[in-house]
Design goal:
By secondary structure, the protein is mainly alpha-helical. The chain folds into two domains: 127 residues, Serine Threonine Protein Phosphatase 5, Tetratricopeptide repeat, CATH 1.25.40; 107 residues, no CATH class. The chain has 13 helices and no strands. It is globular, with a radius of gyration of 21 Å.
Length: 282
Amino acid sequence: MDGTIILNEPEEIDTLAKMIKMAYAFDNWEKVLTLSNKLLNAANKILLTETKHLVKLDRHIAYYFGYSYLMKGLAFQKVEKYPNSFECIAHYSNLEWLDDETEECKKIIYDFRSFAVANTLTLEILNGNKNKLKDYVTFLEENPDQILSGLNTILESSLAFSYSVDEELASLMRHIKDPSHYEEQVISAKYLSLYYLLACYKYTNGICNEAVDLILHTMIQADKKNNDSYFKKSVALFEVLKPNASDSQLSEYSIILNNIFKGEDEYEKSTYSRSHFIKSTK
């Protein structure tokens, strides 16, 4: 034995981090919370052991503390337990107590502090603070990698508090790329969420034809990306929208379902062009 500490499954720390990411991708917030607590306990166990320098980790120990609180905070955010989410932000915004003067650790501390600033602003929007919208859009435009998540936040707030975000959508949707750019599991889930929420937003505002187009797009992409959760959500929303669907939209819906039932992916070759779905939201 070389003295290296090996944690038993499922407590192996890097495996736990990957499991949290997967649970997040599938909107399993209870599992995210459970696994994040396990990750935090595992990180504490490593930090307190006298042989922590022998533990084989993919990242600096500070990352696991920050990541556990970050993901807990996001899960609480998703189930609308905002005070709990603010508490988590307070933890990962202040990781200086783990600073060992290495460049790797300093960067991790800086990154999580930046996440805290962004997520505090996100919670303000989710709480219906429209006065923060301008600041939020400015932040997103300065941080384009956050625009996908930010659009989801803006739409969630708009739907919850019944206010228009047409101007914000016009500004930010131009940054959204073709769905092929969003293949990574968590990112693809955010892409599907965006178009699902856009469909809800259009429907709520009486723009039913666009809402149907958007939910058909979401349905197709959810199947391509093997996301059963958003496929089921899309089918359920289409059934609500069905009375407002045109003959061509109803026909396309039938084609999608028939190909699913047959276990085929032939609709990718369909003559229907999906490009207008992207354009219709800008």
